[in-house]
From TrEMBL:
Protein name according to UniProt: DUF465 domain-containing protein
Superkingdom, natural source: Bacteria
Annotated Polar residues bias: 1-11
Residue span of region Disordered: 1-22
C-alpha cells in the first residue's frame, strides 16, 4: 500500500465513522453507566439519612458508613475503567 493509499484509507475511516473513540466503546459506556447508578443511589440514600435521622453522633456514623460503602462499591469499577482507558490510549 502506498503512502497516498494509506492516508486515503485513514481519512475514509474517520469520515465513515470506523475510527471510534475510546469513549464510544461499549465497555466504557457500561462502566460509566454503572458508576453513575452507584453514585445516584448513594446520593439518594445520603439525602434520606440527612432528612430522616436526628442530628446525633449516630447520624454521623451512619453517613460515614454509607460513604465508606459507596467508595468500596465504586472501587473495582473505577479500577477497571482506568485500566481500559489506559490500554486504549
Amino acid at each position: 500500500m502506498t503512502s497516498q493509499n494509506a492516508n486515503s484509507a485513514a481519512s475514509s475511516d474517520k469520515a465513515g465513522g470506523f475510527a471510534a473513540t475510546v469513549e464510544d466503546h461499549p465497555l466504557v459506556k457500561s462502566l460509566r453507566s454503572i458508576l453513575k447508578e452507584i453514585d445516584d443511589q448513594y446520593e439518594r440514600e445520603r439525602q434520606n439519612f440527612v432528612a430522616t435521622l436526628p442530628n446525633t453522633s449516630a447520624k454521623d456514623r451512619a453517613l460515614a458508613m454509607l460513604k465508606s460503602r459507596h467508595h468500596q462499591r465504586r472501587e473495582n469499577y473505577v479500577r477497571e475503567l482506568a485500566a481500559l482507558l489506559e490500554r486504549t490510549s
